Amino acid sequence: MDNFTFYSPTYFVFGRDTENEAGTYIKKFGGSRVLIHYGGGSVKRSGLLDRVKKSLEDAGLTYVELGGVQPNPRSGLVYEGIELCRKEKVDFILAVGGGSTIDSSKGIAAGTLYDGDFWELYQTGVAPAALPIGTILTIAAAGSEGSGDSVVTKEEGMLKRATHGDVLRPKFSILNPALTQTLPPYQTAYGVTDIMAHLFERYLTNTKDVEVTDRLIEGLLLTMIHEAPRVLENPDNYEARANIMWAGMMAHNNSVGVGRTQDWTSHDIEHELSALYDCAHGAGLAVVMPNVMKYTYKHDITRFAKAAVRIWGCQMDFDDPERTALEGIARFRSFLTSIGMPKNFEELGAREEDIAILADVACNGDGRPGYLEGFTKLSQKDIEEIYRLCL
Amino acid sequence: MDNFTFYSPTYFVFGRDTENEAGTYIKKFGGSRVLIHYGGGSVKRSGLLDRVKKSLEDAGLTYVELGGVQPNPRSGLVYEGIELCRKEKVDFILAVGGGSTIDSSKGIAAGTLYDGDFWELYQTGVAPAALPIGTILTIAAAGSEGSGDSVVTKEEGMLKRATHGDVLRPKFSILNPALTQTLPPYQTAYGVTDIMAHLFERYLTNTKDVEVTDRLIEGLLLTMIHEAPRVLENPDNYEARANIMWAGMMAHNNSVGVGRTQDWTSHDIEHELSALYDCAHGAGLAVVMPNVMKYTYKHDITRFAKAAVRIWGCQMDFDDPERTALEGIARFRSFLTSIGMPKNFEELGAREEDIAILADVACNGDGRPGYLEGFTKLSQKDIEEIYRLCL
Predict the structure, then answer these.
(1) In the A/B pair of chains, how many CB contacts fall below 8 A?
(2) Among candidates A43, A47, A32, which has minimal Cα distance to A66?
(3) pTM > 0.95
């Protein structure tokens, strides 16, 4: 196991009706003047935004609002939020929504305290300071409610980049599984796919002898495989939603990924798709991930065979472990199809003729070194071939 | 899943040589005048204490020392520590040792800021304020490095009681698996048993439909079953030690136990044994736990069958799940024996003639209601019968 530090100081408040405690927790963590940041109309239509405002008013807090976060959140709204926070002397940001809203909030929180152009923080990947953030999560997916990460897309050139920092970890996150019961099935499934990607990107490691994190990742993946069909059969299944929601947080606060190299090439390869075609991140991952696996499994057949046996319940072919490894990847592909995920460029709205530019931006965009490196090192030509497997 | 809050703000620093960063982390978390609290001579003999002192000196910190913590830490030393901290105006406590040293440090930290007799905090079970604490862990066992709990024994009446509070969560914990390589095999195995107990006490729940935490607990137990024999075969196996050490933290910071009722009757029944006979907590648990399971499994045969299949690799007897449930308990018993743990009162140094008093104190001591309640409700007569199964 590699040396590591682990820090997850977020106060998690989990369960029914917990959104009504938002005001109390903002006060507890020192906020007085709040920016409520959210996406589209659903938080309004559902009455969630009104309940949250009432909770803030009951706690004696004042607030300003900024809606309009899109999936794959844009830098334009982050600039707007920074200006608003400075003008209104906001001292706490409350994100009400999913990963996009939380990531946009983190961009605003870091940008407000940064002297230069906030995008620089997404070029260096380091956020040194930020306003405190709280979240009310409405979709189990990105894990941003428990992470120190944020991904934002710059409209100019459609560059999708990430920044990181303990200062971006929410002070508190309110997780009420009931808030996710109204999600359309495809959004639920995108979330499931994203969570599974966070787990597989950690599972594909070159660090030897990391049984504890292997077992934890496997446990969370088994949970997803068990619970996803249950919520798709019955969207009102609170218990299944609850299991997915906690798994989504645990998948990405890194308690199950410490002390080991991780992959993240599937995320990097996908980010170019959602940046260019504005498809859902989960949908892009569903297309990319099994193909990244198919392209790279020979790097460590044993690891893929282990995944096949422990996660997908395949029988180990002791005479031909490669067969088992491939069977596991095929089961992953089938599972994603079974929950309604796309499996190729066409279903995603992506185009074969863009492959060269996709691979170029993935490898060279914004100062990258000309390749991607995680589980294996992938050249621009490798990335092109992976995109081609997605056709 | 039940509503819950989860908060684990400890900064974990894991890996080789990390003890040399103690001074840096104390400064980071605001300490200037430190009490270094430890147990017997091993931290001196190994040179660990000298390295820690040097790290504090390098960081410009001053310190006082208090050694002498015993296993099952006593209130007498806590009183002494409180007096020392007040006299020396200590503002940070550094525990260098195992669970006993950390728990003693937590008692001192809470007691220093408490106006009355610190023991009252262990009677009410609530610690409202405490000096900040850091830890350097030397045995993977108690999980106190990541928990808000402390257990101390009062010499008068040999009462062993716990207190709790987020203020008791360490600001940082330094976990270097290499520090555990010099432990005698029986101490390593006591630690393994304690960690497994923390997991099984959480596994035995009455909350339905908690797949995510079931799977996480199972993953950690499978890790322990895999790694414990490896360290006993080769005490210098750093990787196996590392897997156990992170599992020990994860087993008890409650990320795998949230949203579900837990048991803790094995701990309560054991505490009377280690209080009266001063045996190791892990040794007592090894004797008690399988017998608590044998006595209570009919309360939920399905859960025990699940444990047998998923944790112990038993085949499910679909026609007779009770057989599978019992097979799992028997495998647990065999596993504990295989790692050198005692299996009855005699090996523990406990006496049949004390059973009545043991059960009486467990049920009625220090204001208890006359029974124990967790997975099932156990009367004083039930507790006596469980102790009798341990003969």
Answers:
(1) 129
(2) A43
(3) yes
- Please, what CATH class does the domain formed by A185-389 belong to? mainly alpha
Q: In angstroms, rounded to a whole number, what is the distance separating the alpha carbons of residues A106 and A7? A: 17
Which chain A residue's Cα is nearest to B18? A3
What are the CA-CA distances from residue A303 to residues A293, A299, A324, B290, B311 (Å)? 11, 9, 11, 35, 21
Contacts of B11 in chain A (CB under 8 A): 5-7
Distance, in Å, from the CA atom of A116 to the CA atom of A122, rounded to the nearest integer, reads: 12
Return d(Cα B204, Cα B209) in angstroms, integer.
13
Least confident of A38-42, B316-320, B353-357, B377-381: A38-42
Three-state SS at A13: strand
Is residue A337 within 8 Å of residue A287, measured between CB atoms? no
| CATH code of the domain occupying A11-179 | 3.40.50.1970
The total number of residues shown for chain A amounts to: 391
In this structure, which topology does domain B181-389 adopt according to CATH?
Dehydroquinate synthase-like, alpha domain (1.20.1090)
Q: How confident is the model at residue B317 (pLDDT cuts 50, 70, 90)?
A: very high
- H/E stretch holding B333 reads helix B321-338
pLDDT tens column, B318-344: 999 999 999 999 999 999 999 999 999
Q: Where in chain A is the domain with CATH 1.20.1090.10?
A: 185-389
> Please, is A246 exposed, middle or buried when counting C-beta atoms within 10 Å of its C-beta (0-12, 13-18, 19+)?
buried
Enumerate the residues of chain B whose CB falls inside 8 A of the CB of residue A177.
Answer: 1
In this prediction, residues B15-22 reach a mean pLDDT of: 98
Q: Tell which residue, B238, B266, B225, B240, has the closest CA to residue B376.
A: B266
Residue B33: burial class (beta carbons within 10 Å; 0-12, 13-18, 19+): middle
B128 Cα to chain A: minimum distance (Å)? 16
- Digit-coded pLDDT (tens) for B149-189: 999 999 988 788 899 999 999 999 999 999 999 999 999 99
Give the pLDDT band (50/70/90) at residue B275.
confident
Q: Which two tokens stand for residue A242?
A: 């609850």
What is the bridge-based pairing of β-strands B92-97 and B133-137? Answer: parallel
CB contact under 8 A, B212 and A1: no
Distance CA A175, CA A138 (A): 8
Which amino acid would we find at residue A41?
A: G
Residues of chain B with CATH 1.20.1090.10: 181-389
First vs last C-alpha separation in chain B: 38
Query: Which candidate, B330, B332, B345, B334, places its Cα nearest to that of B386?
Result: B345
Residue B132 CA to residue B29 CA, distance in Å, equals 8
Note the residue count of chain B: 391
Q: Hey, what are B113's tokens? A: 């800021």
CA distance B87 to chain A (A): 32
In this prediction, residues A197-215 reach a mean pLDDT of: 98
B285 SS3 class: helix
Q: Where, residue-wise, is CATH 3.40.50.1970 in chain B? A: 11-179
> What pLDDT digit, counting tens, does each position of B205-261 carry?
999 999 999 999 999 999 999 999 999 999 999 999 999 999 999 999 999 999 999
- Tokens (6 digits) for B153: 């024994």
Is A250–B216 a contact, with Cβ atoms under 8 angstroms apart?
Answer: yes
Is the predicted pLDDT of residue A336 greater than 80, yes or no?
yes
**In the predicted structure, residue A157 carries a pLDDT above the cut 90:** no
**Quick check: B223 and A212 CB within 8 A?**
yes
Round to whole Å and give the CA distance between A221 and B218.
Answer: 13
Q: What backbone phi and psi angles, to 5 degrees, belong to A365?
A: -60, 140
Beta bridge partners of A66: A37
H helix or E strand, kind and range, residue B82: helix B75-88
Helix ranges restricted to H, chain A: 22-28, 42-45, 48-58, 75-88, 99-112, 119-124, 185-203, 211-233, 238-252, 265-277, 281-296, 301-310, 321-338, 345-348, 355-364, 380-389
